[in-house]
Model the fold of this input.
Amino acid sequence: MKIKILVVEDDANIRFGLIELLTSEGFEVESCARGDQALSAVTQHQPRLIVLDVMLPKLSGYDVCKQLRAQGYVGLILMLTAKSQEMDKVIGLELGADDYVTKPFGLREFTARVHALLRRDRNESAPAADDKLGDCLIDSRTFELKKGTQVVPLSAKELKLFQLFARHPNEVLSRDRLLNDVWGYEYYGTTRTLDQAIVQLRKKLADIGADPKQIATVHAVGYRWAKT
Done:
């Protein structure tokens, strides 16, 4: 069965070009031109990957990304942006995007990003048992962190971070490794993104009665789950 990709782009020339390119790569491609159309298109077509422009009529790509993640969409989101400022890229990643490509982009770069995202998703989506994190349980099916009867929801990025800590107890995980493994292929954004995510992880641990200090900061290196 062909992998289904949804292209959301208001520029007709770019949209048709991407449809032709992705179709030639063997994908099944659906498309729309507005942000509000994207939400219904995702429900209708259930794409594995969404190519999502930031500057869209009716609803911006940022808003689409945020709403899709809030609704539980766990597929891949590759954002297209004409903005080169680092903060614009960080915003998309923090809202749940998996990667971004800045316009204008080369066709080879674009297809390489698509294939890299799909390879990573295939490797990470293999069925796995729930991870134990101290006295907490990471439920990868419901995107929740549990301790006894206490439960908090997790975003896709938070889930991946908790899984990394659970699978590498007492090991120092560098900032570069965490950013690349969780935020995606050759991520070069600011480490502020990671620091903010760690703050949220500690808050969620505290919310269910776990010790947030178990995520220890290793200065100038990264973070470590201090297994007790």
About this structure: The two ends are 46 Å apart (CA to CA). DSSP finds eight helices and twelve strands in the chain. The chain has two domains: 4-124, 131-225.
